[in-house]
Amino acid sequence: MRIYVETYGCWLNKADSMIMITLLLRRGYNIVSRIDDADIVILNTCAVRGDSEIRQLKRMRELYSKYPDKIFIIAGCLAKVRISEIRKIFEGKCIIVGPNDVENIDKIIDTALRGERKIFLSEDRPMTVLPDHIPELTRHIYVVPVQVGCLCSCTFCVTKYARDVRGKVKSYPIDIIVENVKKAISKGAREIYLTGQDVACYGYDRGYTLVDLLEKLLSSIDRDDIFVRIGMSEPEAFSKIANQVIDIVKRDHRIFKYFHLPVQSGSDKILRLMRRRYTVDEYRELVRKIRREIPNATVVTDMIVGFPGETEEDFELSLELIRELEFDKVHVARFSPRPFTEAEVMKDQVPDSVKKARSRKMVEIANEVSLKRNLAYIGKICRGIVSSVDQKGQGVVVRLENYKPTIVKNVNEELVSAIVDVHVRDATPINLLGDIKNIVVEPIRMSRIVRICEELVEDAS
Ligand code: SF4
């Protein structure tokens, strides 16, 4: 049986796809990279944004009309949020698999092969299966989901509903994570991405924290040629462990000096309407602490423009915060009213034209700020890992020790996974440009690479 997997959304969703692929390969199924060749099609969906939802539903209609005889499995957050719409598209002939059911995909396919077309929406997640590292699919990058759920209830967030678990947070046991990361490294992994819905609340359900996981992981790996990236962290939960995490990042060069802390707005009024659990001042202090302790740290954030009730003054406060804290990257999103959220029905909805103008303005400011930061790298020699092939096919992308992307042209993909020193020659708001000065650690030799189809949301890294 041949199976095709298409993934939408964040790194946690990608990790869920790798869990499904892991279980299916263990059962002897073949994973194919072309939908024509597949008997079963799995779409692992994302519910975060309205415009992406429209694209995914359109994709489903196209696929079902072109391949009515294939078995369709619709998984992920949108599968839970839009059950009836999706079942209607497939005339009831698709299987719905919620985010909590990915660890049962092999048994779910057994039901499909018996001709059943059921809906699987478990209220809880077993947290027993982690993805294998499959170099043919992900080269030297191992994405490991460490937790699901979060401790917040932001009024705009549909993920909270889609990925709801008993007890709010579910974490994989430290030992299982360490064991799987070590196995992945022994199979050629060199970049380890710790991902989750809110990595900062890892271990909340098990009486330990992200700090314990990082300490255990780093003390268990006697390799120097690896890089670990800490995934997205909700600022309030992160502030509780900030000092310890910053210490570890300063102490161990194997952790990317990279922090992804979504602030969402620069206005306290809007943060309250969003039910975020920090003030602008508290957030400011958190970023200042990181910058003080690790001056070349990369700080990335997310901003929502056009949240209900956002005035020009509120918006200006968000722009001001970007200028003041000088983020290396800002993911700018226009407020998208999502089902099962309070914000969807809030009064004072902002017109689309205003959202559009504000997001354009914010991207402009964010680019000015990130360019200013990137220009400071010109002339420097920086260490990094050749992380991927450049999507424009110009060369490769080297991720520096602070995860900053550096394009190196006219270098072939054989060098992917090598650790190199780069001489930075130029900068744009999005990335640096440079030449490889020397190869510090040779690349991992890969047998063959299979591409699986992915639609990335702005590379949610
Ligand atoms: S922290 Fe807020 S935005 Fe993030 S997953 Fe939880 S409820 Fe959603």
Topology of this structure?
Elements lengths: L1 E8 L1 H16 L3 E3 L7 E6 L4 H17 L4 E6 H5 L1 H7 L4 E4 L7 H9 L5 E2 L14 H4 L2 E9 L9 H4 L6 E3 L2 H13 L4 E6 L13 H11 L6 E4 L4 H17 L6 E3 L7 H7 L5 H14 L4 E8 L6 H14 L3 E6 L17 H24 L5 E9 L5 E6 L4 E5 L9 E9 L4 E10 L12 E3 L5
Parallel strand pairs: 1-2, 1-3, 1-19, 3-4, 4-5, 5-6, 7-9, 9-10, 11-12, 12-13, 16-18
Antiparallel strand pairs: 7-8, 14-15, 14-17, 15-16, 17-18
Helix pairs in contact: 8-9, 9-10, 10-12, 13-14
Bound molecules: iron/sulfur cluster.
What would you say this structure looks like, in words?
The structure is a single chain. The chain has helices at residues 11-26, 50-66, 77-81, 83-89, 105-113, 135-138, 159-162, 174-186, 210-220, 235-251, 268-274, 280-293, 312-325, 352-375, and strands spanning 2-9, 30-32, 40-45, 71-76, 94-97, 119-120, 141-149, 169-171, 191-196, 227-230, 258-260, 298-305, 329-334, 381-389, 395-400, 405-409, 419-427, 432-441, 454-456. The chain is an alpha/beta fold. It has four domains: 2-122, 3-Layer(aba) Sandwich (Rossmann fold), CATH 3.40.50; 124-256, Transcription Regulator spoIIAA (2-Layer Sandwich); 261-376, Transcription Regulator spoIIAA (2-Layer Sandwich), CATH 3.30.750.200; 381-441, Beta Barrel (OB fold (Dihydrolipoamide Acetyltransferase, E2P)), CATH 2.40.50.140. Helix 9 runs parallel beside helix 10 (235-251) and helix 13 (312-325) runs parallel beside helix 14. The longest helix has 24 residues, at 352-375. The chain starts with a strand and ends in a 5-residue tail after the last strand. The structure holds iron/sulfur cluster. Iron/sulfur cluster binds at residues 150, 152-154, 157, 159-160, 197-198, 234.
